[in-house]
Write a structure and sequence with these properties.
- The chain is mostly helical.
- It is built from 20 helices and eight strands.
- It has a two-stranded antiparallel ribbon.
- Pfam families: SusD-like_3, SusD_RagB.
- Belongs to the SusD family.
- Its main location: membrane.
- It is found in: Cell outer membrane.
Length: 599
């Protein structure tokens, strides 16, 4: 690996900059556009000009992603059969992450900015952002594959040695933490919500992310032979407590109302957000979440009945827990599942008959019953409807409400520009709770979960434990995992939590289901479809005016296949190996490389 003595022009970067400067909020578009013939600028010019330097860095920020409605379809939360036979192979692109093109751009910035004439404080900010970005990308790659070639210099694809071997997983974590420490030392500790710089990486985000990295390093994924008592857990506890304490002292806190976490932007819970601003930068969350009749086509994914059942009751206990004040049998629960639930259920999911005042429609209720609901919303096989649903293989009778901006009309749904919260303080808290529990600090973990549940609106109970009955480490581990499942629903955590904890077997041979609603009269007999439709048109039918039954999704009867043990580390794609004969493939995928920390 050689650093080039004479840097070549990187005109393609400047072209990409032009694509970004019109939409990225913290770049001064007016100043940049005054520059003539930007495509001819080389690195020397970029790192001697504040506007071009900012534009270069802005071009890298898309690495943090944006809203994605289907993130949790790989778990039980959302419909969709994702783990079919050979879903992941060495040759296909599924679950592969090898982002060295972006790494090269970051390494170029780290080397070149130090040779430019920018003010030192700006150099430090750029370096801090770049070190963090490099660590962020490498962490994602390590999470997928284990140890990777941790390249720290900008390689030239024609003149430098690209045939680099993989660093061990232990070395990869070491270099990653070094990058994060460098970032923390250089970045401003906090960029406040009123700052013009808001949306850039700050030291608090870097510290919270470092704590998350430590959680992964200690996890069963990387320590399968000693998952719960390895020495990394104490290190993880120390840094997670530091992150929690530091952010708490600076005013980070849970948003009062769970519904407002995303919709009231720049709130106290936001640790880092990707800024969206219509019309320059929007996301597709509402397009994918809303019922088809209120969107631009069918919903992309829908919540499953299995996940609906996992939300606790108002007292924090499960519906079938005999000690719950709201205990119900399975049959009773099916006919009244919306009542007396954890308030996060009401704020996360839309169900048949629910008051759903979307698009400014006062008093609107959402229906899913076949023959009553809009054809883009219906789900069921009711023969009295005299029509077939086209949604049986994709819908469930539920829709996602969380983070939906109901004020948008149907015509405006593609204007969704709510900021994407990549990390929120609740995650910092629960990460801390997990490391506290795994190091024998059960009471600290309990206190964190109680705060989370109090914000949710769960009843404290006579013991003040908000329905949490864990009295030992294993029970608390399950309580924390359950809380992650509910608190971070549809935010893309569940599959990765199960994988990190080596619990993917919980997805084995599971079935995803939905709930059909059929309108009934007070005596329990079926209501004539015409009468039911007329009542629904006036939003007169409520949840209790229906009977319910469970249908498998997809209706064809396909189940989720067993998730192989090898999925705890994904393979490097064969075409990458073919270009670099120094790379070893992972054990379990035809290679000899051990991606865990146990080597």
């Amino acid at each position: 690996m050689k650093i080039k003595q004479k840097k070549s022009k990187i005109n393609f970067i400047a072209s990409l900059v032009m694509l970004m400067i019109s939409s990225f909020y913290f770049v001064s578009c007016e100043d940049v556009l005054d520059i003539e013939d930007i495509n001819n600028y080389d690195p020397e010019q970029i790192w001697n000009d504040e506007n071009l330097a900012n534009a270069y860095m802005a071009n890298l920020y898309p690495l943090f992603g944006n809203w994605s409605i289907g993130q949790d379809s790989y778990s039980q939360q959302l419909t969709g059969i994702r783990f079919y036979p050979d879903m992941i192979t060495v040759t296909n692109g599924n679950f592969k992450n090898w982002d060295y093109d972006r790494i090269r751009l970051i390494n170029q910035a780290i080397v070149d900015v130090q040779e430019g004439t920018l003010p030192q404080d700006m150099k430090d900010q750029i370096l801090g952002q770049a070190y963090f970005m490099r660590a962020y990308i490498y962490f994602d790659m390590i999470k997928y594959h284990g140890g990777i070639p941790y390249i720290k210099v900008p390689q030239d694809r024609y003149n430098d040695d690209l045939h680099v071997a993989r660093n061990s997983t232990k070395e990869s974590f070491q270099y990653l933490v070094e990058d994060l420490d460098s970032a923390i030392a250089l970045l401003p500790e906090r960029i406040g919500p009123n700052s013009n710089e808001y949306g850039k990486i700050d030291g608090n985000f870097a510290l919270a992310f470092k704590a998350k990295v430590a959680l992964y390093k200690a996890s069963p994924q990387f320590n399968p032979s000693n998952p719960w008592s390895n020495s990394y857990w104490e290190d993880a506890y120390t840094i997670n407590k530091q992150a929690y304490d530091q952010l708490s002292s600076q005013g980070y806190a849970l948003t009062d109302d769970y519904s407002d976490i995303f919709l009231e932007e720049r709130g106290p819970e936001v640790v880092f957000a990707v800024i969206n601003t219509y019309p320059n930068k929007t996301a597709n969350w509402d397009v994918g979440a809303r019922p088809g009749s209120e969107s631009r086509g069918p919903a992309s994914v829908t919540p499953t009945w299995e996940f609906v059942k996992e939300f606790p009751m108002l007292d924090g206990k499960m519906y079938n827990d005999p000690s719950s004040s709201y205990f119900k049998t399975d049959e009773e629960f099916l006919m009244d599942y919306w009542s007396d639930r954890d308030p996060r259920f009401d704020k996360s999911i839309v169900w048949n008959g629910k008051l759903y005042e979307v698009s400014g429609k006062s008093g609107k209720r959402q229906y899913t019953a076949l023959g009553i609901a809009h054809e883009l919303d219906d789900f069921g096989v009711n023969p009295q409807a005299a029509v077939n649903s086209t949604n049986l293989d994709r819908y469930s009778g539920f829709f996602v409400l969380k983070a939906s901006k109901l004020s948008y009309t149907q015509a405006e749904v593609e204007q969704y520009d709510v900021d994407y919260v990549l990390m929120r303080f609740a995650e910092v808290m629960i990460n801390y709770a997990e490391t506290a529990n795994e190091t024998g600090r059960l009471n600290e973990a309990m206190e964190i979960l109680k705060v989370i549940r109090k914000r949710a609106g769960i009843e404290p109970g006579v013991d003040g434990n908000y329905g949490i009955s864990a009295t030992n480490q294993e029970e608390m581990r399950e309580a924390i995992l359950h809380e992650r499942n509910i608190e971070f629903s549809f935010e893309g955590h569940r599959f990765w939590d199960l994988r990190r904890l080596r619990m993917l077997d919980r997805l084995d041979n599971t079935t995803k289901s939905g709930v059909e609603a059929i309108a009934i009269k007070p005596d329990g007999t079926a209501m004539p479809i015409g009468e039911a439709r007329n009542k629904a048109d006036n939003y007169e039918l409520v949840e209790s005016d229906f009977k319910y039954s469970v249908l498998q999704v997809p209706f064809s009867g396909v189940k989720v296949n067993s998730v192989p043990e090898t999925y705890y580390f994904f393979p490097i794609q064969q075409e990458i190996l073919d270009r670099n004969n120094n790379l070893e493939q992972n054990i379990g995928w035809g290679g000899t490389f051990n991606p865990t920390l146990e080597n």
